[in-house]
Design brief:
This is 2-hydroxyacyl-CoA lyase. The protein is of the alpha/beta class and about 575 residues long. About 40% of the residues lie in helices and about 15% in strands. The chain has 22 helices and 19 strands.
Length: about 575
Amino acid sequence: MADCFDGNILAAKSFARFGVTHMFGVVGIPVTGLANRAVQLGIRFIAFHNEQSAGYAASAYGYLTGRPGLLLTVSGPGCVHGLAGLSNAMINTWPMVMISGSSDQKDFGRGDFQELDQIEAVKPFSKFSVKAKDIKEIPDCVARVLDHAVSGRPGGCYLDLPTDVLHQTITESEAEKLLTEVEKGRVFEATKAPPSSEIEKAVSVLRKAERPLIVFGKGAAYGRAEGELKKLVERTGIPFLPTPMGKGLVNDDHELAASAARSLAIGKCDVALVVGARLNWLLHFGESPKWDKDVKFILVDVSEEEIKLRKPHLGLVGNAKKVLEMINKEIKDDPFCLGKSHPWVEAISKKVKDNVSKMEAQLAKDVVPFNFLTPMRIIRDAILGVGSPAPVVVSEGANTMDVGRSVLVQTEPRTRLDAGTWGTMGVGLGYCIAAAVANPKRLVVAVEGDSGFGFSAMEVETLVRYKLPVVVIVFNNGGVYGGDRRSPEEVSGPFKDDPAPTSFVPGAAYHTLIEAFGGKGYLVGTPDELKSALSESFSAGKPAVINVIIDPFAGAESGRMQHKN
């Protein structure tokens, strides 16, 4: 019957009607029809080689756009592979929805094809999950997962679509009625804001502080709080410290940026206004000895649970942008500003200048064979040379990410994606693809270690297939952390002639990988070769891999986290 819709069409129509424009995934039984229908209805489907990378793409897309990133997988193993992306979204608190096909409901428990209790499997990694048990439930289930993903603290949600439900049919008029009913019934959450009395208290604490500090993270970036943040910094003269993915909300080169004096800033501040950043391992749990034992924290977070967990001096529950707007309004009525000659601002400023000049002296040297600093300086200058809109930088690896964090400069919001709260390796290519799709006007530059690249290297074919403006720079030092660093005593046992567990094939020709698919590869080992490759690939704006040969003994094992390994 011409006017009948099956579950695939109804699901695709539901996503399109409720505002979805992009979907990432790997097709197969039983969801190929759903992907095809989605494309037909104007949703761009980006097909990957591996659900893990597609899931990382969906999670980053949620962060970059503020709308749920969608991952489509097959049943069973496809769903399990997708858990990597779903859990990454959950830990980073980014909105994402994983949609998986599942086995026929009547055959469940009998060993059906790719059978798995997927609702149970996703529980630890999702804030909400639902199974559509009948075709008529599809529109409501779609609306619920999309709405839950962005409500309160954002996170991962899961939608289960059994094979039999995808094959059921209803008439076009029934489908339209269901879609209209669900659309009318959707209620969107109001922007959370604390009472004005709490804002007054917060401003009073900041005003009385002798050594205040503003710390902001990717929650502030997700909340689009950059305008209010810059206003607050410039109106009060308070130094600021971004977390790695908060970089660029206020220009890294701003005169009040305290990143290069991080230890002094967090060790000596007496009041810290923390916006959209959690007091977790990245901020040393807000505890001494890294922080002063008497520091007063004012925490701004969308989650009341987070504030209860951290027990700050003052907690402001609400959207970062809205809360900062209220703080700015309160300060405007009775302004205060530290001024450049304030002892605290002077101390931070002096420390920043000292540390920057030490770092610049190191960076100024052309070291060949390359260490990490020489190529990173050349990459920094090439990225800054692009101007605005600034490229999105994707960074992963141990040493590569650590060095990149302190050397690469972010001048615009949401232009740095890295391993994040969970320290996830393997996110690189997925994040690149998400960034290219979410920001079509920006170049995307990945700066990756060879180990990080290896997790998802096959997705360079995806870059070529969709003609995405992504340049992947691989720091190739021949292994995880680099060459064989074992002591002679450790090289023993019956398999002592095997390569070290941290070693890869030396001199691997990673640049030829993209050439196999028609992309452009570069092999570089000197400053001039790297400058030339960057200049050519950046201006071409086409998929490329630059294989940068690094001294295998440059850098440190485990980067800056040796104490944990």
